[in-house]
Amino acid sequence: MTRFAFLDITADRFRAWQRGPASLPIPIKLDHDRDTLPLAIRGDQRKWQIGHAALQISRQCPHLFWAGFLNGLNEPKTMTLGRHRIAPDEAIQLHLQQIKECLGSCRQLLMAVPAYLQPSQVDRLEQMARDLGWDLLGIIPRGLLIAQAIHEEEQPWKELGVLADVDDAGLSLHVIRPSMHDLHLVQERHLPLLGRLRWLDCLIDAAATASIHLHRRDPRSDPHSDQEIFDQAQGWLRQLQQGKEITIRFTPTHRTLPYELTLRRAQAENMCLSLCQRAAMEWLHLLKQVDPKLTHGSLRCSKDVAELPGLLSFVQSLVKARLDVCIAEDSYPAMALRLADSISRKERHRIAYATKCISLPDAEFIFDARTTGLKKNTTVSEPEFTFDAPHTLPFPQEPWLIKKPMAEPLPDSDLRQLPKRQRPAQDE
């Protein structure tokens, strides 16, 4: 077993890898025989249960279930689950203890965290890891790590670009600036209303609508069938990306035979259209700021964003120029393990999270200094942003999208010329 590991943290799950034969990353089983450890906890028993065991009651007993507490790290608040009370720090500590048992004798760790966490929250997470006996090699923003994986595997960063990533807490947009030897995270924009759970809720609504038309029954009205559909929905996004039809089965409490229905990709994209429109507007607005010409390769995203139904096709339909979409596959664990190996051998310095910068292994590309309009820790003025939108927007637009001219008050002379209100004639 290697002496170091890579831990990937998002708002909804933990994943870990170690280096195996031929320098290939090997996922570590964190929750029995599963690679992922969901960031969830349940309090209906004497002992806390975390991971997939907690997700089993997320819809049946929501008052005994808690998830999405990563944003509450290092904050003085608690959650009541049945007869128990727990704070976000204690809940995350339980997950880290289970991960430590799965890692075994591994003591050196490289961590990737979401970029929307506050510096105090990252410091608290670092302290919790050190209290468990880990030797941290560094903490990297997850968007910056995916950006370097794209640079090494897919397409080098030659200019400013926007990278999109998503988890249950929201959609994150990262502005990446390359230099001769480094990649810098210049700006990060977090959209909590466009998280992965919102897309899953739209797919569940589409399944419920199909069930009402076909079976005259809403599966969300029954806790048991609602939990069955939610458990199946975890793999729907990947099936839709592969072009497969989704077969849904659920059994209400009063029945012994299950209901069955089919959800097609067109139905899913239609239900997620409002989310696609809002995400595309936010994404293109930030992309227009950093790359006004919308050059090739300026549109990059993680694998999780590519699984969102209809988002990439909708973004490309709004832009006249052709954009080459670079999708980061599961290559960033191998790159992270190579980085951890070089740090453990003292070939590189430990990575401090506050720098938000990662060095590149090579500098074989030409850097165009004219595209570095954004500087670190500076605000960007919002330019005029127009494009041809083939679809209407059913959701309320943002203030920077709507600029209504204010009505000027009329002078007193014009008010005197207005006709008086005609009173209704009274009966004699």
Describe the protein.
The protein has 428 residues and is α+β, with helices and mostly antiparallel strands. Helix content is 32%, strand content 21%. It has 13 helices and 19 strands. The protein has helices at residues 52-55, 88-103, 119-131, 142-154, 196-215, 223-233, 236-241, 265-271, 273-290, 303-306, 311-317, 332-344, 412-416; strands at 4-9, 13-19, 25-27, 37-38, 40-42, 49-50, 65-67, 79-81, 84-86, 108-113, 135-141, 161-167, 170-178, 182-191, 246-250, 259-263, 299-302, 325-328, 357-359. Residues 362-428 have low confidence and may be disordered.
Quick take:
The chain is of the alpha+beta class.
Annotation keywords:
428 residues, disordered C terminus, 21% strand, 13 helices, alpha+beta, globular, single chain, 6-stranded mixed sheet
Assign the structural class, choosing from mainly alpha, mainly beta, alpha/beta, alpha+beta, or little secondary structure.
Answer: alpha+beta
Please tell me how large the radius of gyration is: 25 Å
Largest beta sheet, briefly? Answer: 6 strands, mixed
Mean pLDDT, to the nearest integer, reads 78
Number of strands: 19
Shape field: globular
Strand content: 15-25%
| Uncertain stretches of 5 or more adjacent residues | 362-428
Helical proportion?
Answer: 25-40%
Distance between the termini: 103 Å
Specify the number of helices. 13
Strand and helix map with partners:
Layout: E1 4-9, E2 13-19, E3 25-27, E4 37-38, E5 40-42, E6 49-50, H1 52-55, E7 65-67, E8 79-81, E9 84-86, H2 88-103, E10 108-113, H3 119-131, E11 135-141, H4 142-154, E12 161-167, E13 170-178, E14 182-191, H5 196-215, H6 223-233, H7 236-241, E15 246-250, E16 259-263, H8 265-271, H9 273-290, E17 299-302, H10 303-306, H11 311-317, E18 325-328, H12 332-344, E19 357-359, H13 412-416
Parallel strand pairs: 1-10, 10-11, 12-17, 17-18
Antiparallel strand pairs: 1-2, 2-3, 2-4, 5-6, 5-7, 8-9, 12-13, 13-14, 14-19, 15-16
Helix pairs in contact: 9-11
